[in-house]
Amino acid sequence: MKTFPDTFLWGGAVAANQVEGAWREEGKGLSTSDLQPQGIFGPVVDRVAGSKSLKDVAIDFYHRYPDDIKLFAEMGFSCLRVSIAWTRIFPNGDEQQPNEAGLAFYDRLFDELAAHNITPLVTLSHYEMPWGLVKQYGGWGNRRVIGFFEHYARTVFTRYQKKVRLWLTFNEINMSLHAPMTGVGLPETSSKSEIYQAIHHQLVASAMAVEICHDINPDARIGNMLLGGLVYPLSCKPDDVFEALQENRKWQFFGDVQCRGAYPGYMLRFFRENDIQLDITDADRQILESTVDFISFSYYMSGCVTADETLNQQMRGNILSMVPNPHLQSSEWGWQIDPVGLRTLLNLLWDRYQKPLFIVENGLGAKDIPDATGVVQDDYRISYLNDHLVQVREAIEDGVKVMGYTSWGPIDLVSASKAELSKRYGFIYVDRDDNGEGSLARSRKKSFYWYQEVIATNGASLKG
């Protein structure tokens, strides 16, 4: 009977702007997420008096976290991935002194997790940054933002050095290529040069955070986070195979810099051929040599690419546009379900970097409807997660070092792409709809008890 390593961390993952709510409480400033009420692909809008966003309350985790953490503990979580809202600590992003009320909130959150023996995995910047840094400085396009992020990182590393041992820098850092406002605080109309310059500043800031974290707490481990955008060639034609190589390099580049400490040759060629001239200093190159301790990533689906434009009928996914794979089924949102792709991705990343891996997002979004007894019978979610976890186990058998697995959305939350609650991921149902109506009451879905058994048996209960 195959099980997972004894040290394997089981849990779930959430993001501050998708669960906390309390968007202006206790000194919190405006973030880019606050100004994108329609989600990461939506427009930036002024938040005038009376305007509302589903994220303003979200699922009210800010006030209800003790009860939610009890539910996570009931499932047996040994890890919870959370993010710190940068604007709770520095409301505008450029202040010298942090907001004590914001720091105190995360103290309470981490203490609550500790009381239930749940290890926090903390992301510094998850799909949001202070709007003040965008408005006053132009977002990550301005080199000065590196210093503001450094100050923020140093502040929280120092404050929580006895409470947090696992850190991530930026959520799905390669997402900036597809949603630049969310990723680097730049408008959608920005040029490739502007976006890659902002990305460079962010990569330097990430490496700087690694160095600071190690200096403040040598026992801590800090990783990066990639959107695992695995694509296959649509056919075995050599042109399609090479097109898939090039497409995968678009996201692997971020891992290469953060794990190897320098820009790879294929990106330097890309910059040359696209007339992208970046301001990269010798000091930047030295900082980039501070590489991450482990690699974390999200994985929801795979896709295909082809060099044949006549066949290139693209399907819009979460962030990536990919050609449908004729051998796979799709979710309600058109995301193709590919459990074996997760094993492939784990092996690919392990072979490429030889650093421990952490699956920090994986899950199935669906329109869950409670039955007559009030319970969501989400066998479709159980099937999806079971099949993916079986492939994680197989990758571990392959020799891949996997630190843990935190499913995306252990509790229903506001989705990032379109800021809706109808796309549910959780093991825990939250009574709130896309119009903001509902009691916010929590209830256990069928998958709650399934995941509880998976954790209790360390994966032995998985079927397959």
Automatic annotation (TrEMBL):
The keyword Hydrolase applies. Keywords: Glycosidase, Hydrolase. Its EC number is 3.2.1.86. The keyword Nucleotide-binding does not apply. Pfam families: Glyco_hydro_1 (PF00232). Gene3D superfamilies: Glycosidases. GO terms for molecular function: 6-phospho-beta-glucosidase activity. SUPFAM superfamilies: (Trans)glycosidases. One of its GO terms (cellular component) is cytosol. It is an enzyme of class 3 (hydrolase). GO terms for biological process: carbohydrate catabolic process. The active site is at residue 361. Belongs to the glycosyl hydrolase 1 family. This is 6-phospho-beta-glucosidase. It comes from Candidatus Pantoea gossypiicola. The gene is ascB.
